[in-house]
Amino acid sequence: MTSSFFPPQRTLMGPGPSDVSPRVLGALSRPTIGHLDPLFVQLMDEIKGLLQYVFQTSNGLTIPVSAPGSAGMEACFVNLVSPGDTVIVCQNGVFGGRMKENVERCGATAIMVEDDWGQPVSVAKVEAAFAAHPEASTLAFVHAETSTGARSDVAALCALAKANNALSIVDTVTSLGGIELKVDEWGADAVYSGTQKCLSCIPGISPVTFSPAAVERIQNREHKVQSWFLDMQLVMGYWGPNAKRAYHHTAPVNDLYALHESLVMLQEEGLENAHARHLRNHKALVAGLEAMGLSMAVAEEHRLPQLNAVNIPDGVDDAEVRSALLQDFNLEIGAGLGALAGKTWRIGLMGHASSERNVLACLTALEAVLGRQGAAITTGAALPAAKAQLKG
Amino acid sequence: MTSSFFPPQRTLMGPGPSDVSPRVLGALSRPTIGHLDPLFVQLMDEIKGLLQYVFQTSNGLTIPVSAPGSAGMEACFVNLVSPGDTVIVCQNGVFGGRMKENVERCGATAIMVEDDWGQPVSVAKVEAAFAAHPEASTLAFVHAETSTGARSDVAALCALAKANNALSIVDTVTSLGGIELKVDEWGADAVYSGTQKCLSCIPGISPVTFSPAAVERIQNREHKVQSWFLDMQLVMGYWGPNAKRAYHHTAPVNDLYALHESLVMLQEEGLENAHARHLRNHKALVAGLEAMGLSMAVAEEHRLPQLNAVNIPDGVDDAEVRSALLQDFNLEIGAGLGALAGKTWRIGLMGHASSERNVLACLTALEAVLGRQGAAITTGAALPAAKAQLKG
Questions:
Q1: Cα separation of the two ends of chain A
Q2: Strand A331-335 and strand A307-311: pairing?
Q3: Do B345 and B309 touch, CB atoms closer than 8 A?
Q4: Residues A312, A334: Cα–Cα separation, whole Å
Q5: Strand-pair partners of A91
Q6: Bridge partners of B110?
Q7: Which class is A21-268 in CATH?
Q8: Minimum-distance CB partner of B204 among A14, A252, A268
Q9: Which of B4, B7, B250 lies nearest to residue A16, judging by beta carbons?
């Protein structure tokens, strides 16, 4: 017989999921009601309004897809891309590669714009790609690369798309709620995110928003969207503006309670305050890590405050350190991904997990574990440096 | 400012979501851990084992898809069907139509076998369809039609598929946990279900299982699966037998805590006992409804105990009755769907909601509301009839 599962209380400072607030967990376990209940329909409207606030958009089609961020990505591609299309895809980490897969599975051609991992997407290279491929109808890129911790310039890239009569698809999985994101002002057309990063919510839902131009393209498609589950023409009947709330699929009711609560919390704090908190804790963490003698993998001007890629010092066993942090300190940090596997750690300071307490706990634990491994680090300097930064 | 959302405590006796046990809601809100945490990997193995038990299968590829049942359906179709294929699709309710949509979006041809709504799938018609279409490589049908409450013969239909060298795709969204389902013994190849019906779990996850023959077809595909998110060749790297637990997407960690707990509860009760409970409460409900003067929409031999389609008596306002049940009794029952909209109600007795308490509460509430509407019903007879049936 299998017994009930009781997870330990970890501190989640990896690339996501991040720590979920007790308020959100409390909302999650409220009694389930039906997905067509009038009170649930009211909740849906509130979620749409709150998502419009965090995305900084007035897009009518702003909803949570009932599946993780990867499905949100797929929702953007299968709805906007048709067979035979040309899509410029920027790759400066793992997730650009996943975008390429999506484009090709839609029967379209991906023109790849490659940048080194840890670098932002090069606006000049994208400009050159549009010049070489005037037929390109879509530009796709990642705002905050979760695999490297680098930030790209959404405003400049979306302006380039517009200037070339293309629509933009923007991955904001790790950016939403953690750094500035202005969907309308920057002119992004199809934007997807995840709940398990800076929204401090449980994993499993993907907020998306589509501009009027994106909706127009969806409505004028000649080729049916290849996914029934993600077909926005159908989903709009349940979630869309002026929708009749026609049954499409059973909404993940409790997960949406949790998303609602996490968005209410973000609204209470205020977006700008949340961004400032992410930045403050990031600076303290970096001050501590550098005082310890560690170095950051991404240049200062491109760093994401919510995802800190740290170079693994020579002679240190990557997996052993992460395992010791988990076993002895209940602290999860992330491994490097793809080209950076074994070379970096990814320390997340996302949402509820972006706190002074976590910065200090992480520095303490890391210093202890690296010390045990005999790494060439400076001891006793990290905490004072972080605290000084927090005071300053 | 938007405030926190506090749902009322409804009794969910519609077509799903059904009532979620407090034990499951408790598990749902336990602290989130990472999707690559060794303890989470252990949980994943336990979920696979428990799903093998409820599906009655030894299939290695038996996993929860990270999205609702509609995505589980799509996972079966996009992995098993390739462009140019011929698929025999049985339609005796809403969900056969959705299967047709899936087939066509895969670039394949759907040969429709139609039966009246409320009737089971005709084995003879399927046999004729195979004779007329020897090129058909897949047969798809619904075990328990949620839109009508009728049960079809999985064993006979899967045997027909096998005899014609075709694989079978079986929708068990409403059957799993509520009535007998023997995946291996009956020879079903790709089977999907949902968490929000007879598993008494929250909505949002879709258990699926693939036979060795189905896995072989997936591994030998020449055309890439059109969905990256649902591509079982990739998902197997995280969930599959002997998987390296390679990151594919972020698993919905808390939802899987809930699924695990609901499966543990089902294992504790025992599948046969759960089936017997569903049948006992169904018979009591029917006895009460008939004593009240109402009639069932499906012939006795094809009825699903977990989903009771009741003919709406003449002169009664469908929507008003359902609204009064919800407002005055916090009781949700389901409307008719598709061809049965306005003609039937669907009263669910699924999972945790299949209880004596709910049978009696539903009969009491329905009698009160129908009485107020001046419907021609017999009053005072329903409860004694239901209780007599429960005692017998």
A1: 56
A2: unpaired
A3: yes
A4: 12
A5: A114
A6: B87
A7: alpha beta
A8: A252
A9: B250
Do A137 and A87 meet the contact criterion of CB atoms below 8 Å apart? yes
Q: Report the alpha-carbon distance of residue B312 to residue B294 in Å, rounded.
A: 8
B392 pLDDT more than 90: no
Match 């498609």 to its residue by tokens: A221
The CA distance from B338 to B341, in Å, is 5
Rg of chain B on CA atoms, in Å: 21
Q: Is B207 helix (H, G, I), strand (E, B) or coil?
A: strand
* pLDDT classification of B338: cutoffs 50, 70, 90: confident
ipTM confidence: 0.97
* Two tokens, residue A386: 């972080």
What are the CA-CA distances from residue B381 to residues B290, B322, B357, B361 (Å)?
9, 21, 17, 14
Query: What are the E-state strand segments in chain B?
Result: 11-13, 61-65, 86-91, 109-114, 138-142, 167-171, 190-192, 206-210, 307-311, 331-335, 344-348
Domain with CATH 3.90.1150.10 in chain A: 271-391
pLDDT of residue A242: 67
Average of per-residue pLDDT across A1-13: 97
The widest CA-to-CA distance across chain A, in whole angstroms, is 64
Each residue of B257-288: pLDDT tens digit? 999 999 999 999 999 999 999 999 999 999 99
Distance CA(B319)–CA(B326), nearest Å, equals 11
Q: Indicate yes or no: CB of B249 within 8 angstroms of CB of A332.
A: no
Query: Rounded mean pLDDT of A187-201?
Result: 97
Contacts of A32 in chain B (CB under 8 A): 7, 10, 12, 17, 19-20, 25, 202-203
The reply to whether CATH 3.90.1150.10 applies to domain B271-391 is yes
- Verify cis geometry, omega within 30 degrees of 0, for the bond prior to A207: no
Judge contact between B331 and B10, C-beta under 8 A.
yes
Q: Which two tokens stand for residue A214?
A: 């994106």
Inter-helix orientation angle A382-391/A271-292, to 10°: 150
- Cβ–Cβ below 8 Å for B8 and A33: yes
Q: Are the C-beta atoms of A238 and A99 separated by less than 8 Å?
A: no
Beta-carbon separation of A4 and B203 below 8 A: no
Tokens of A255: 């997960």
Residue A131's Cβ-count burial label (10 Å; 0-12, 13-18, 19+) is: exposed
Decide if pLDDT at B349 tops 70.
yes
Residue that the structure tokens 């089936």 belong to: B275
List where CATH 3.40.640.10 sits in chain B: 21-268
Strands A86-91 and A138-142: parallel
Q: Which two tokens stand for residue A248?
A: 């499409």
The answer to whether the beta carbons of residues A252 and B204 sit under 8 Å apart is: yes
Name A276's bridge partners: none
Nearest-by-Cβ selection for A260 from B5, B66, B253: B5
The Cα–Cα gap between A276 and B24 comes to 37
Question: Minimal Cα–Cα distance from B314 to chain A, Å?
Answer: 25
Tell me the nearest-neighbour CA distance from B255 into chain A, angstroms: 8
| Joined tokens for residue B148 | 């009508």
The SS3 call for residue A313 is: coil
Written as one string, the DSSP assignment of B7-32 is ----EEESSSSPPPPHHHHHHHTSPP
Whether A257 and B202 lie within 8 Å, measured CB to CB: no
Residue with tokens 């994106």: A214
**Alpha carbon of B77: minimum distance to chain A alpha carbons (Å):** 10
B178-192 average pLDDT score = 98
CB atoms within 10 A of CB A212: 12
Cβ count within 10 A of residue A234: 19
The residue to which tokens 């299967």 are assigned: B99
